[in-house]
Each structure stands twice: as structure tokens, then as C-alpha cells.
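User: Please fill in residues for this 189-position structure.
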């Protein structure tokens, strides 16, 4: 009789331990605000109104959760992934009004007059309002902003060789300086 009681107590405990160890493979995850960095630009994920998450990965691997400081970073980063169109891929964004996680593909995007973390200027929300953009239109807007302002040129900024260390010194991407130096060298020859 005692052995049956022990078994009845052990079985629920084992089930509890097994269920606690399962990794969630769907939906948005918990964000450790100001302690995690954007998978694209490496800025801190800190704004509860404009951040995003992507859950996905190669078909032969477990899905992974990636976090972003702005929906623009998530969109551009995801477009470079070979698994972007996989059915398991999920994109989540914060509703800019109440900070709840919503599906990015079904959200509506409004242009925000205040700054968003990376200045893509979009806030997501669940309901459509006048001039709201759907996901594809929001992606187009993000790429227009990226092209116009070249927000992530991935070029470290350097002082021009002739510039003095003054507040008015002109900063240019390193690649521009290298190509200018190469052109100048070729012209001398």
C-alpha cells in the first residue's frame, strides 16, 4: 500500500518536471528590456512600444527567437535569411499604444511623428485606421527610409584625412575614404 502511495506522488512530480523543461517554439518570448541587443544593429532592446521579435530558423534545426529594437530592423534582417518564407517563421511587434505583442503580418502600421528607436517611424496596432499601412506596405516604407537615409550603411565613420578634430569636421564612411584615396593615387600615376 505504501508503495502505491509513493508511486502516486512521484508520477505527478515527474510530469511537472517534464512540462517545465519544454521549450516554447511558438509566439513571442520574454524580453529582458535594456539587457538584450538587437540582432541586426546591436542596440539595446529597450522601447516597449516599437520592438519586434522573429521566431524561426532553418527547417532542419529548432526554431530560435531573435529580438529587435525596431520593426524596421526585424524586416530588413529577416529578408536576408534563407528561411524567411518558411511556414514556421513568426514575426511579432509591439502594439505602440498598449505594448502588447501582436502578429506583425496582420498588424496595421501608422506613421509616428515622434522618434522610433531606429527612425523608421512606424507604430504597429491591431486595428486599421485612415492611412494605415498593411505589412507589405510597411516593408516598402522601411526600405524607402533605409535607402533615403542609409541608416545601416555598415561603414564605420572616419574623419577625412584633411579634417582637423573640430566639431565641424566632416565624417564619411570608411569605404568612401578608401575609394577616394585610391582614385587620388591612380590620378597621380
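Assistant: Residues filled in for all 189 positions:
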Amino acid at each position: 500500500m505504501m508503495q502505491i502511495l509513493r508511486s502516486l506522488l512521484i508520477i505527478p512530480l515527474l510530469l511537472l518536471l517534464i512540462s517545465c523543461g519544454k521549450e516554447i517554439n511558438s509566439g513571442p518570448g520574454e524580453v529582458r528590456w535594456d539587457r538584450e541587443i538587437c540582432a541586426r544593429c546591436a542596440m539595446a532592446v529597450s522601447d516597449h512600444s516599437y520592438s519586434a521579435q522573429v521566431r524561426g530558423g532553418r527547417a532542419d534545426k529548432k526554431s530560435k527567437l531573435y529580438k529587435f529594437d525596431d520593426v524596421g530592423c526585424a524586416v530588413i534582417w529577416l529578408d536576408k535569411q534563407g528561411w524567411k518564407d518558411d511556414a514556421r517563421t513568426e514575426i511579432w511587434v509591439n502594439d505602440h499604444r498598449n505594448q502588447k505583442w501582436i502578429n506583425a503580418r496582420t498588424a496595421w502600421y501608422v506613421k509616428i511623428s515622434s522618434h522610433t528607436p531606429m527612425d523608421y517611424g512606424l507604430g504597429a496596432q491591431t486595428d486599421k485606421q485612415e492611412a494605415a499601412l498593411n505589412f507589405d506596405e510597411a516593408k516598402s516604407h522601411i526600405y524607402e527610409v533605409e535607402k533615403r537615409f542609409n541608416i545601416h550603411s555598415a561603414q564605420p565613420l572616419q574623419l577625412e584625412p584633411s579634417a582637423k578634430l573640430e566639431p565641424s569636421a566632416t565624417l564619411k564612411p570608411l569605404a568612401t575614404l578608401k575609394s577616394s584615396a585610391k582614385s587620388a593615387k591612380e590620378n597621380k600615376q
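For context: Residues 113 and 181 are 40 Å apart (CA to CA).
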